[in-house]
Amino acid sequence: MKAKIIVIGDAPLVMGFKLAGIEDTVQAGEKTIQAELEKALANKDFGIIVTNEYMLGMIDWRLRKKLDSVAYPVVIPMPDYSGKSAEGDEIRNLIKRALGFDLGAKKQEKS
Fold first, then answer.
1. In the structure, what pLDDT confidence band is assigned to residue 57 with cuts at 50, 70 and 90?
2. What gap in Å lies between CA 67 and CA 97, rounded to an integer?
3. Which CATH superfamily is domain 4-99 in?
4. Cβ-Cβ contacts under 8 Å for 49 (sequence gap 6 or more)
5. If 0-12 CB within 10 Å is exposed, 13-18 middle and 19+ buried, where does residue 7 land?
6. Rounded Cα–Cα distance for residues 4 and 43 (Å)
7. What pLDDT was estimated at residue 39?
8. pLDDT at residue 81 above 90?
9. In the sheet that 74-78 helps form, which strands lie side by side, from edge to edge?
10. Rg for the chain (alpha carbons), in Å?
């Protein structure tokens, strides 16, 4: 079974991913982001959750701790349309955490 991508966020984020062909999108606001993230986490079909970095900062600390500790699904915080990122892991680090190894690491040659 293929894991799906879901995008949860404000109108610009959701519209951008819809235009890119992502079908599973949910437009959420500051009051609904927590509930939408919890629904997505409960749905085992989703392997990647893309959300606004700004909105991610508004969720309850318990959900934030859960998101930081789970390896699946991978939660990818996206900076807002200004392009500035306050925190957030690099995608490579998120993938490493999900898989347990670094796909981009250089292979060591045997001597």
1. confident
2. 12
3. ATPase, V1 complex, subunit F (3.40.50.10580)
4. 5, 6, 7, 8, 37, 40, 41, 73, 74, 75, 76
5. buried
6. 10
7. 94
8. no
9. 24-27, 4-9, 46-52, 74-78
10. 15
Q: Is 80 exposed, middle or buried (0-12, 13-18, 19+ CB in 10 A)?
A: middle
**Residue 61 class from Cβ within 10 Å (0-12 exposed, 13-18 middle, 19+ buried)?**
exposed
**39 alpha carbon, distance to own chain's centre:** 14
Q: 């955490």: which residue's tokens? A: 97
- Spell out the domain ranges in the chain: 4-99
Q: How far apart are CA 98 and CA 73, in angstroms?
A: 8
Query: What is the H or E stretch that residue 42 is in?
Result: helix 33-42
Supply φ then ψ for residue 65, to 5 degrees: -65, -40
Tell which residue, 61, 89, 79, 59, has the closest CA to residue 10: 79
